[in-house]
Design brief:
Length: 155
Amino acid sequence: MANTYIQIYIQLIFAVKGRQNLIHNSKREDLHKYISGIIKNSNQKLLAIYANPDHIHLLVGFNSLNLKISDFVRDIKANSSRFINEQKWVNGKFNWQEGYGAFSYSKSQIDKVVSYILNQEEHHKRKSFKEEYIELLNKFEIQYEEKYMFEFDED
């Protein structure tokens, strides 16, 4: 489309099915590289990624009119699940939970969000994933019903 330019910054968050701690520290970098390739092949730009043992955060520069966010997330989840299963990182079958969070940011907020994502390990020493996720939903004034949220262990 002539004279159409898009740049939207989106933080994506999704969780391991059953909130199991299946993403081990020793495999984190390989998963980051693999997901980075998925994003690059979609012609989007990965700005930050951090895979916690039970959930993942991505910050993506999204610049496409022709790619729906839901399709983009579906592709990341399906392909990364396939990769983890082919590598036999877990006993049984690895899956991501259904659903995801997608939160938009302005360019002026990017450095802060990148820092937040890259410091997830420290962040989660003080706050659970459930607390973090609900805080984001509230910050972005997203109405939600807990019964439709990720499966959370009682903290």
